[in-house]
Specification:
homodimer; alpha/beta; 15 helices
């Protein structure tokens, strides 16, 4: 198998686990946070900067790359790794989340989804087969099955029908997928219904994917409900395969996800808020544009060892934001990604030393929002 | 003296010369191109990237820093070098060029210039004394006298009066300037009139500045006229002092400037056009956004060794521009600055090997615009 999971250590009190993910582009420690590079670039970052902060796998978006520059062009360039000069891991989503998000611009049938481009209104069709072919052309290490992310709220009937279709689609993805150098992951749906989560997990596990995502969470539901769904769902997944919680990236949710046995995460949160001048710290957030930092010559976070914190002050970074200078959002992006990657490393260390429960409690005690 | 010029080699056929500029923040080879960091950052670049491409001195703008974040704040931060984490050379202009450019927003008297901020309309006053004090607070290695850049066209009478005032202002700057660790350069004006250029140069040289700029060129006049003024003016300046041609940065003008004996240049051109997707090459320019590069997997310039050209294709960089990704303009900025800095190194090598005339002819033969 092209992508395999190696379990290194289990927490003795929770579902948390430390492991390694072996991929055709390297082996990466888990739990892992994957920075999002929607359009074949992690916004404002260079590949070298990502490596410097220890990034292993990044996520890129099939919907966006299919529209621009087009998967054929990426294939012609030698694949996504070569196109964007990134020789570590890449996971691509299936495009399902984006096309379903188009609302009035899309139409769903059993066959697939017809949609109009958010860029120029042109008409397109994505299906399990097409989404898989596009991702095979991109050549990412991990590709995702084409699914519907059940919206929140959804009634049981809708959630059931959608989840059953997602499973049928996952089967069609599997039949289409032929690249031996990439792994196709299934996505567990089921909305906020435990019986549907059970059904989805059972059906997908019987299809024997090399990895499983938990989808349809962090879509607007209260956090306790998300945690409840995780607690219910993750134990239904095989221990020997990697588990990926899609779209989650705030520190509190990462800790809870890890506690429930999740190995992989992605989220636009750290990079998106960085570009608005919001900086992540252990105790919450710092809005560096605020006037209070005008003459604050301390680093963004004095416990941080990132390039931004080693070399620049809050006052300077605030100045860059006030004057709309690109270097400002480069620095906050570096900091936020470094912060999250480091946070994952600290969680892994705590698991290895079997003190994850203490780590979690100390973290939650000082985290404000 | 805090800044001194060391003449290393003179071209046997032209005024071109290779030298070294010794400053409190290092010694730099001349002729040199200084990237522009208007607001305490070279747009889109990190200090490390500038160092990687061999940048020595950068230019920053007094007018902008005076308004935001304010020179007192920069002084409180420990000076401009520390504020922006740049430990090589910094030259600041005097703010004169910017306040005179404000047109209806400014009023000139013998005392100085009253102007309104382009940001919030607030009222300010810059004089030779104030501009010098601001630059002393910033702590740049080289500061410029407060002058009026004679507009083009200007009649002889206006140009004469303005140039005479610039000389009186230069004297006041010199009287105000007290920092031993920075050098105050005088600026030769005189418009497009040789007699006024002679007068300005003579008067300023008698004030014995540690370096001289030629100002008021590249302001809309035909290039041959600029070259004529250079040919007339530069020989009037002392051989043992550095000579700086302000606001010039296209390859053809750089070659001609060097030929006439200029040591230092600055211009926003390479960084500004880079952000619009225009890339500098030996033969002219390449607009990487153009459709013809969509499937062009060659580097921007296959003779270039910059980070962008070593690692990314035209097709990828075009994709980044088409999708408004910041990394695109980072790459074109790196390329353009690297290109110009390398171009200066090549000119210096040609001077050292006494083949500058051949170098110039070969360059002009292939340069299109």
């Amino acid at each position: 198998m092209s992508v395999t999971y190696e379990l290194v250590k289990k927490c003795s009190k929770t579902g948390a686990r430390a492991g390694r993910l072996h991929t055709p582009h390297g082996t990466f420690d888990t739990p892992i946070f994957m920075p999002v590079g929607t359009q074949a670039t992690v916004k404002a970052m260079s590949p070298d900067e990502l490596k410097d902060m220890g990034a292993g796998i990044i996520l890129s978006n099939t919907y966006h790359l299919y529209l621009r520059p087009g998967h054929e062009l990426v294939a012609e360039a030698g694949g996504l790794h070569k196109f964007m000069n990134w020789d570590r891991g890449i996971l691509t989503d299936s495009g399902g989340f984006q096309v379903f998000s188009l609302g009035a611009l899309r139409k769903i049938t059993e066959e697939g989804v017809t949609f109009r481009s958010h860029i120029d209104g042109s008409k397109h069709f994505l299906s399990p087969e097409k989404a898989t072919e596009v991702q095979m052309a991109l050549g990412s290490d991990i590709i995702m099955a084409f699914d519907e992310c059940v919206p929140y709220p959804a009634d049981h009937d809708y959630a059931r029908k959608s989840t059953e279709r997602t499973t049928r689609w996952a089967e069609r993805c599997k039949e289409t997928h032929t690249r031996a150098d990439q792994a196709l992951f299934g996505i567990v749906q089921g909305g906020m219904y435990k019986d549907l989560r059970s059904m989805s997990a059972k059906d997908l596990v019987s299809l024997d994917f090399p990895g499983y995502a938990v989808g349809g969470l962090s879509v607007g539901e209260p956090k306790p409900l998300m945690y409840e769904m995780l607690e219910h769902t993750v134990p239904l997944l095989p221990e020997g395969k990697p588990r990926y919680l899609m779209g989650v990236g705030t520190p509190d949710c990462l800790v809870e996800g890890v506690m429930h046995g999740i190995d992989m995460f992605d989220c636009v949160f750290p990079t998106r808020v960085a570009r608005n001048g919001t900086v992540m710290t252990r105790s919450g957030r710092l809005v560096v544009k605020n006037a209070e930092y005008a003459k604050d010559f301390r680093p963004l976070d004095d416990t941080c060892s990132c390039y931004a914190c080693r070399n620049f002050s809050r006052a300077y970074i605030r100045h860059l934001f006030k004057t709309d200078e690109i270097f400002g959002l480069r620095l906050t992006t570096i900091h936020n990604l470094h912060f999250l990657l480091n946070f994952m490393r600290e969680m892994r260390k705590a698991i290895l030393e079997d003190r994850f429960v203490d780590f979690r409690q100390e973290f939650l005690a000082q985290f404000i929002r």
